[in-house]
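Retro notes, structure queue

What went well: the backlog is down to a handful. What didn't: a couple of records were mislabeled last round, so from now on we paste the full input next to the output in the thread. Example, using Aliphatic amidase amiE from Rhizobium freirei PRF 81:
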Amino acid sequence: MSVKASTTRTVTVATVQFEPIVGDRVHNLAAIERLARTAKAQGAEILVLPELADSGYSFRDGDEVAALAGPVPGGPSAEVLCRLARELGLYIVSGIAEQDGDRFYNSALLCGPEGYIGKYRKLHLWNNENRLFKKGDLGLPVFDLPFGRIGIAICYDGWFPETFRELALTGAELVCVPTNWVPMAGAESALEPMANILHKAAAHTNGLYIACADRIGIERGQPFIGRSIIVGPQGWPVSGPASADREEILLAQIDLSSVTETRTLNSFNHLLGDRRADVYG
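Corresponding output:
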């Protein structure tokens, strides 16, 4: 899981917001390649793509999932993403439909200039995902990259504070979030989506950078809200939010060494050190 470390602590992270087409893996991978090349030209060093970016989201049934999913690593989508990362010298976190034997997972792949690094399987499944995928069984891994320690969450994982707390406690400094946010009840007249509020709060309470890459469009009647965002460890956006309906690349140069300092609030208080583990574990 480890990658050779260096002293580099500053990195330019990019989130890609676009519209995958369900069932059209060739189209989706071509769009990813086009956007990855653009982001790289703009200075991106780590790229975050939406949830199920290779396959689309609104599957009709398990047979459609089976036709679009592949092994991670080694499947057709994973091979394209890893080749692209090697060619561009870029770290890529992408949502991907994973097949493992007769089981299917809503997963995220991490690859870089050296090829495949690791994967994460979504822990908290949303709505019809429960009919199509198995719940994640790899925990919440943290990956050592040359510029810092990276965790991954996917979409509905962000509604559980434990996701980010566990990642922070195991050393994550940046959490990459491939997501397909949908409209939430009561949000019709809200100034910002609940998803942005939750991830700003998670960044603030854990002293984390969080980079969320959402999709756009309406797929088989299901709308998606866009509004991708990159949040700093004090909870304030460092890029975005993006629009609700346009293809966009957000970029932010972030200093992961600032996480340690941010978590120390004053001479008495530390965001993680003040936890009352004797009371609530």
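Agreed that this is the format going forward. Reviewer comment attached to the example: The CA atoms of residues 187 and 194 lie 7 Å apart.
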